[in-house]
């Protein structure tokens, strides 16, 4: 005897939203894999802006120290992002996903 699972409209809607959310996350991940250096650059800029905003909220620091701190924080964030990009590249290479992605550009051997 087969049992059918009946879901309400809101339950079905929430399941479809979860499926859409997964595809959005997957599409963001694919974009990051394809544009590693852009991602690192965006993280660097956001590090500079965020650190500058935080440092400017401290009134008892000299401006030169605030700028140096902002650059230091952004540099640390950039190094972490580069390390993350290197790990993504390593695992892409190890899993063969990168070879599959570029196989369509390589002409077949005769």
From TrEMBL:
Gene3D superfamilies: 6.10.140.1320. It comes from the Eukaryota. GO terms for cellular component: mitochondrion. It is found in: Mitochondrion. Residues 9-100 form the HIG1 domain. Keywords: Membrane, Transmembrane, Transmembrane helix. This is HIG1 domain-containing protein.
């Amino acid at each position: 005897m087969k049992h059918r699972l009946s879901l309400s409209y809101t339950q079905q809607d929430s399941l479809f939203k979860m499926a859409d959310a997964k595809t959005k996350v997957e599409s963001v991940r694919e974009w990051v894999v394809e544009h590693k250096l852009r991602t690192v650059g965006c993280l660097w800029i956001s590090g500079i802006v965020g650190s500058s905003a935080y440092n400017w909220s401290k009134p008892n620091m000299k401006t030169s120290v605030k700028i140096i701190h902002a650059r230091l924080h952004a540099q640390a964030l950039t190094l972490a992002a580069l390390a993350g990009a290197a790990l993504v590249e390593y695992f892409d290479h190890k899993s063969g996903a990168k070879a599959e992605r570029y196989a369509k550009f390589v002409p077949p051997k005769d």
